[in-house]
Amino acid sequence: MEESGKVSLDLCFGTTCFVMGASKLQEIESLIPPQYRDKVEVKAHTCLDLCKNATYMKAPFVKVDGEIISEATVEKVLKAIESKING
Ligand code: FES
Fold first, then answer.
1. Arithmetic mean of pLDDT, 22-38
2. Nearest residue CA, atom 1 of ligand 1?
3. d(CA 64, CA 56)
């Protein structure tokens, strides 16, 4: 959790992640269920430095409270946010 008590959501829109599907994650902030929206701190990045060493994991990458999600989809990310908030 962030110091603010919020779950941090780090999105990557670097070239690798973008071409691998991060473009579909651009809307994610508006897709966070209303009851969770003010509990999530969203940040966009130009590279999370995960694509360079991604032997076993695939872009696009997202971090939810520091936990790396590879091959991130809207569904995966929303699920991770929900489970972080609900413990
Ligand atoms: S472009 Fe996304 S981790 Fe590098």
1. 95
2. 14
3. 19
Q: Would the pLDDT of 56 be above 80?
A: no
Residue 2 lies in a domain: no
CA atoms within 13 A on the CB side of 24: 13
List all residues whose CB is within 6 A of at least one atom of ligand 1: 12, 14-17, 47-48, 50-51, 59, 61
25 closest CA partner among 48, 4, 2: 48
Average pLDDT over residues 27-40: 96
Domain of residue 58, residue span: 7-85
Q: How confident is the model at residue 87 (pLDDT cuts 50, 70, 90)?
A: confident
Here the CATH number for the domain that contains residue 43 is 3.40.30.10
Average pLDDT, the chain: 93
